[in-house]
Design a protein that fits this description.
There is one protein chain. This protein is α/β, with parallel strands linked by helices. Helix content is 58%, strand content 13%. It has a six-stranded mixed beta sheet, sandwiched between helices. The chain starts with a helix and ends with a helix.
Length: 349
């Protein structure tokens, strides 16, 4: 018995209609969340204006519970005293309506509640923009905060004025620079290495956990080759790992070292980068970058060698995540030292 035209058309027709319904639902959800974000910001701004006009410091603490009592009765739990305080903080932390309008379609209220309690405005702006640029989930955002991502970026080591300029450029153009991508240290605790291991063990572990390794490296990295063989004057050389970053549009060579940084590593990496620029770099790509991962750094040697000018980034790697306070202190010391060094160079110029 042949199926009727209605029976044969039903599966395709049903599938098409389901797709239309799901698309509309997603669009409605996005529009609703966007409108809710703007509403919360405007409520916070209005409360802030009222609180600033109050003569007593405790006025805000008095007015919010009173408001919440009435609003919850009329509109539900979304307008509790706790949530009203979040809205007030939202307007205080991000006073620009233009910025709120730009992020409202991409960031959920949960994203925003996490971001607005970051006290440092530049640090908050960094995480806000990376959420936008990379489409981070709220869980990813929290993981990045827990691992001190901002403090580990090369960007955080720059003087505050340059840092602010770079973040402004990111907001306006969406352009990712090496300072936003490169980190120090890299946290490789997911590799599961024991106290004693060889360079090959480190390399093998990275390849086993390649997805996690690329996530730790940051935005836009893809794997190209392991032990990339290059031949110069009949001599063979091998690049430990060769990656490509689509956001930076450049090859990235990575050398893995077990001990502390040695000055001789610079010449080796410069040779690799020049070979890659000559034979592998495609038209329209930026010059290759080099990352030397060491278990320890000798800061003065690195500064004297002026590795940044050669497109080389030296960073420590940590095979286990230290206590938060230890990592914070280590990163704070590095940021202060780097900003002071860069500030002195600026004065000399």
């Amino acid at each position: 018995m042949k199926p009727t035209p209605l029976q044969s058309a039903t599966p395709q027709l049903l599938g098409d209609i389901r797709q239309l319904i799901e698309q509309s639902r997603n669009q409605l959800a996005t529009a609703f969340n966007s409108a809710l974000t703007m509403l919360y910001w405007h409520i916070g701004l209005r409360i802030r204006t009222e609180v600033l006009q109050g003569e007593r410091a405790a006025y805000g603490e008095q007015i919010i519970p009173a408001l919440a009592k009435q609003l919850e009765t009329e509109y539900g739990r979304g307008f509790s005293a706790k949530n009203l305080r979040h809205m007030l903080r939202f307007a205080e932390a991000i006073p620009s309506e233009d910025i709120v309008s730009a992020v409202r379609r991409q960031l959920s209220w949960t994203h925003i509640k996490t971001l607005i309690y970051i006290d440092d405005p530049l640090k908050r702006d960094f995480y806000l923009q990376m959420c936008q640029q990379e489409g981070w989930s709220t869980r990813t955002l929290q993981d990045r905060l827990d691992s001190q991502l901002f403090e580990r970026t090369a960007l955080s080591k720059q003087p505050e004025q340059l840092l602010a300029q770079e973040l402004a450029t990111l907001r306006q153009t969406g352009t990712i620079t090496p300072a936003l991508v490169l980190k120090d240290p890299y946290v490789l605790d997911f590799l599961g290495l024991q106290d004693r291991y060889l360079e090959k063990d480190l390399e093998d572990a990275i390849l086993r956990e390649l997805e996690n390794f690329l996530l730790e490296l940051g935005a836009g990295f893809t794997f190209v080759a392991r032990q990339k063989r290059i031949q110069i004057d009949n001599d063979d050389f091998y690049i430990d790992l060769l990656l490509y970053n689509r956001r930076l549009k450049r090859l990235v060579a990575i050398e893995l070292k077990l001990g502390e940084f040695k000055a001789e590593y610079k010449g080796q990496m410069e040779l690799y980068l020049r070979w890659l620029a000559k034979y592998e770099q495609e038209p329209g790509e930026a010059p290759p970058l080099g990352i030397i991962l060491c278990s320890g750094k000798k800061q003065e040697q690195i500064e004297l060698l002026e590795l940044d000018a050669s497109g080389i980034h030296v960073a420590e790697y940590l095979t286990s995540l230290p206590p938060k306070e230890v990592l914070q202190a280590k990163l704070h010391e590095a940021i202060v030292r780097s900003r002071a060094r860069l500030g002195n160079h600026g004065e000399d110029a």
